[in-house]
Design brief:
The protein contains 5 helices and 5 strands, in the order ααββββαβαα. Helices cover 40% and strands 28% of the residues. Strands 1, 2, 3, 4 and 5 form a 5-stranded antiparallel β-sheet that branches. The radius of gyration is 14 Å and the shape is globular. A hairpin with a 2-residue loop joins strand 3 and strand 4. It starts with a helix and ends with a helix. By secondary structure, the protein is α+β, with helices and mostly antiparallel strands. The chain has helices spanning 4-14, 24-33, 76-81, 103-112, 114-127; strands at 35-39, 44-46, 54-65, 68-69, 89-102.
Length: 128
């Protein structure tokens, strides 16, 4: 039997691109790997000059990239290619709830769900 919290995570993920491209089995795989985090206003997510170590899937609230509001998934190139982030990322003024996927789990999911990585790269191309 699938736990209720996993089902809740699947519902959140299914509403957010590129997770909306995944099958039910693939969503379950991702939902089992993400961990919910509640961040206080201004909490540091990524420090400028350092590579991102996890994917934050914003479920409530938002993040700030410097002085600008960040998209719901942010700095994917840093995460995928170990590039340094250009600016600090912090939780927004009302805090943020996210589902976090650590880098090692991202690459496991990439092997199982290649469409997910294609979706991430497509999203980054649209944000430019």
């Amino acid at each position: 039997m699938i736990a209720v919290d996993i089902i809740d995570r699947m519902a959140v993920l299914a509403a957010i691109p590129p997770f909306d491209r995944l099958s039910g089995r693939e969503l379950l795989l991702v939902a089992e790997q993400v961990r919910p985090r509640t961040l206080k206003p201004g909490a540091l997510l990524f420090e400028a000059g350092q590579p991102a170590d996890m994917l934050h899937v914003v479920a409530d609230g938002w993040a700030m990239a410097g002085q600008e509001r960040a998209p719901g998934l942010f700095d994917v190139p840093s995460l995928l290619f170990s590039l340094p982030v250009a600016q600090d990322y912090r939780a927004g003024p009302k805090g943020m709830q996210s589902l976090c996927l650590a880098r090692p789990h991202l690459f496991t999911i990439a092997r199982e769900c290649p469409e997910f990585i294609v979706g991430l790269l497509d999203m980054q191309a649209l944000q430019r």
